[in-house]
Amino acid sequence: MRMVITGLTVLAASAALAADGGVARKIFDRMDVPAGYETVVGSADMPPGAAIGRHTHHGVEFGYVAEGEVEFTIDGEKPYRLKAGGFYRIEAGKVHDARSVGGSAKAVATWVVEKGKPLAEPAK
User: Fold this and answer.
1) For the domain 33-122, what is the CATH superfamily, name and number?
2) With contact defined as beta carbons under 8 Å apart, do 91 and 60 qualify?
3) Which of 63, 92, 106, 115 is least buried, going by the fewest C-beta atoms within 10 A?
4) How far is residue 97's CA from residue 81's CA, in Å, rounded to a whole number?
5) Cβ neighbours for 25, distance < 8 A, ≥ 6 positions apart
């Protein structure tokens, strides 16, 4: 009987989480993570006109612009701008840069990179 009550409690708790008071979740991207990789989550606060600098990662980067506007340049692609709420994805090994446009900006990113290697390396 105790196991049944515990199971019902877990089911009720799961249902309560599903009905989360009007919170809207939005999935931006989904990917498998192979063995030998790690996930890093961080942000970049960019003063007006600041650029991160051309660099690359040993894995994929994806994120969104949390504040302001950011211009992304990725080698071999046309530059593009995203305002707050815009989502981006940069494939592994692609040389890229980001800079704030028209004021300060903030981007929040997740990197899935090879474990034991630097998060970012300057472009050669």
Assistant:
1) Jelly Rolls (2.60.120.10)
2) yes
3) 115
4) 12
5) none
- From first to last of the 124 residues of the chain, give the pLDDT tens digit: 444 444 444 444 444 455 567 777 777 777 777 889 999 999 999 999 999 999 999 999 999 999 999 999 999 999 999 999 999 999 999 999 999 999 999 999 999 999 999 999 999 8
Kindly list the domain boundaries of the chain, sorted by start residue: 33-122
Distance CA 108, CA 45 (A): 9
Q: What is the 3-state secondary structure (H, E, C) of the chain?
A: CHHHHHHHHHHHHHHHHHCCCCCCCCCCCCCCCCCCEEEEEEEEEECCCCECCCEECCEEEEEEEEECEEEEEECCCCCEEEECCCEEEECCCCCEEEEECCCCEEEEEEEEEECCCCCCEECC
Closest CA to 113 of 34, 38, 62: 38
